[in-house]
Amino acid sequence: MPSSDQKPPFPAPNSTLPFWRTQPDKLDDYRSTEELPAECDIVIIGAGYAGASVAYHLLDGNPSPPSIVMLEARQACSGATGRNGGHLKPSLYASVTNMTPKYGREAAEELAKFEMAHVSAIKRLMEKENIDCDFHITRSFDVFLTESQNEKVKRDYDALNQAGVISVLDVHYTSGDKAERLVESAKRHFDGYMQRHFRGWEDSRAYTDRVWSGVMGYSSDNLPHVGHVPGKPGLLIIAGFTGHGMPQIFLSAKGIAQMIREGKSFEGTGVPRLYQTTQKRLDSKENAPLAAIGREINLGQVRL
Ligand SMILES: Cc1cc2nc3c(=O)[nH]c(=O)nc-3n(C[C@H](O)[C@H](O)[C@H](O)COP(=O)(O)OP(=O)(O)OC[C@H]3O[C@@H](n4cnc5c(N)ncnc54)[C@H](O)[C@@H]3O)c2cc1C
């Protein structure tokens, strides 16, 4: 904690302006009251994807909505959420492979299923709330650039298939010339994208005009923290999404709201058991993200 004469290190005063925030909504800097209310039922700290999703689930279809104060250090969605790539891409095999040795297959599979459930949950949300956001369901590729990486992924993929892991049923493996052709066709995908896809833009000479950066926060075991904070009655956490919050946050927030609204236990919410925050996880000295980078350096496989 900085002393009172020191400025807090965050938020950074000179952050870059992401494209998503070039035309801010009226909620961007919205302040509902001059003074903070003296009391309320719930305080939400942070108005990003997590905070907004918790507020949504607390209020959605609630006949007796609680009073909520939402506090935001900067502007709505000015953090990771507003700097996002926008890829709601469930991790269907890597999470199962990476987490199985430590936590067992059943717990690891929960992660993949939960992420997959976000695709339809967010689709339903867009339709129900009539949100205009270019939501587009498509296929995606993971490309492995070295032979050793490719061999490992193929081994893992075959093992998951053999074990009948449901989340990999829709994952296809391609190698050799066929994979090269796929990469080739994707390489220049965004060149002239607007000209190719939008009527009236054909001669626009549209080009990239905004590049921005953002900080990704990693938890020490690469898993989110969700639920009641041990030893702090009345305090819940939904954080630590490790650069991958799009297919994890919305239904985690639903779980948090169920815990508050209905007094459900964490186990009753359907949020993966590995997301539950515990004293053991909070105390752990593990640094899984750095360890993973170390492994990749050894294999000569660092990706950006
Ligand atoms: C460059 C970039 C690209 C990404 N691309 C993807 C992607 O393609 N797919 C994907 O799944 N994920 C992606 N992510 C990750 C994803 O954006 C995050 O997981 C997600 O947005 C996290 O949401 P959040 O609400 O937890 O955090 P944030 O959006 O960071 O929200 C936290 C908010 O809390 C506020 N705050 C913090 N401390 C305080 C305080 N003390 N008081 C008041 N307010 C406070 C902050 O100002 C901030 O607005 C990306 C992240 C970055 C940075």
Can you characterise this structure?
The protein is mainly α. Helix content is 36%, strand content 5%. It has helices at residues 49-59, 94-103, 105-129, 147-162, 176-187, 193-197, 249-261, 279-283, 288-298; strands at residues 42-45, 68-71, 225-228, 236-239. The strands form 2 sheets. The protein has a two-stranded parallel ribbon with strand order 1-2. Strands 3-4 form a two-stranded antiparallel sheet. β3 (225-228) and β4 form a beta hairpin. The radius of gyration is 21 Å and the shape is globular. 24% of the residues are buried. Residues 299-304 have low confidence and may be disordered. Flavin-adenine dinucleotide (FAD) binds at residues 11, 45-51, 71-74, 78-81, 83-87, 214-216, 239, 241, 243-247, 249. Flavin-adenine dinucleotide binds next to α1.
Could you describe the largest sheet, including whether it forms a barrel?
A: 2 strands, parallel
Amino- and carboxy-terminal Cα gap? 32 Å
- Could you state the oligomeric state of the chains shown? single chain
What's the total number of strands?
4
Sequence of secondary-structure elements? EHEHHHHHEEHHH
Portion of residues in beta strands equals 5-15%
In the CATH hierarchy, what is the superfamily of the largest domain? FAD/NAD(P)-binding domain
Strand order of the largest sheet: 1-2
What ions, cofactors and ligands are bound? flavin-adenine dinucleotide
Low-confidence segments: 299-304
